[in-house]
Each structure stands twice: as structure tokens, then as C-alpha cells.
Design goal:
The chain is of the alpha+beta class. It is built from three helices and six strands. The relative contact order is 0.19.
Length: about 130
């Protein structure tokens, strides 16, 4: 079984990051220049995910509706080319890429991380480009 710290260490070494991520035992947080911090989390043996917070969900109804429309247009255009999932919870919205670590070799986790970072960069740039 692959555990969280083994996955985090493999990601860090493969990426060539010298600094270890922050951790609390349930997650490891990484920082990459020009992107929001992101986390690797693991819940049990069969569920892990890369996650990132993209910002606060607006309190006002019209602002929330406008943001939902913009993000929906982006999501529909990216549906076939992006594996990560955009979600809204607890007044925030973010990006997630879940995977089953029990079905992977440890060496595959950095590839999943690279895919997530590619998606995160795309969402982060397009989200900002579409906010007026």
C-alpha cells in the first residue's frame, strides 16, 4: 500500500523541489510559483486527490450567478480535455483530481500531479482572464 508521505516524497523528488511541503498527517501542501498552493490528500487506502482552492464563492446572488455561468462555460469547453473536477463547497470553489493509489504504481503519482498542475494553471489563468 502506498501512503501519503511516500506519494508526496516521490512527487517532490520527481519535480526536483528541494523544499518539503507542509503537512498535518492527512495532507501535504506544495507551493509552485504563480499558482495557488495545492494539496495531496489521502482518505483510506483507495482514495487520494490533488486539490487546490481557487477562491471565495461570492455572497451576492447576482455575482454568484455570473461566476457560475462563466465557470460553467469554461467547464463545458474543457470537459473532454481536462481530468480535474471543479467544485463549490463551504463558500469556496476549487479544483480536485481524485485517484485510487491502490491501483497505481508509486511512480505514476508524479504524472497525475503534473496533469493536475496543468489543469490548475489552465483554470487559474482562465478564471482570472474571465473575471471582470
Amino acid at each position: 500500500m502506498t501512503n501519503l508521505m511516500e506519494m508526496a516524497q516521490t512527487v517532490r523528488e520527481t519535480a526536483g523541489w528541494s523544499r518539503e511541503g507542509k503537512s498535518d498527517g492527512d495532507w501535504v501542501e506544495f507551493e509552485v510559483a504563480d499558482l495557488p498552493p495545492f494539496r495531496l490528500v489521502q482518505k483510506g487506502q483507495r482514495l487520494a486527490a490533488f486539490t487546490a482552492d481557487l477562491g471565495a464563492w461570492p455572497d451576492g446572488e447576482s455575482e454568484a450567478d455570473e461566476l457560475a455561468r462563466r465557470l460553467g462555460r469554461l467547464a463545458s469547453g474543457a470537459f473532454n480535455s481536462r481530468r480535474s473536477i471543479l467544485s463549490v463547497a463551504s463558500g469556496r470553489y476549487g479544483l480536485h483530481l481524485p485517484f485510487d493509489p491502490s491501483q497505481l504504481e508509486l511512480e505514476e503519482v508524479p504524472k497525475i500531479c503534473a496533469s493536475f498542475l496543468n489543469d490548475l494553471e489552465w483554470w487559474f489563468k482562465n478564471r482570472e482572464a474571465n473575471l471582470v
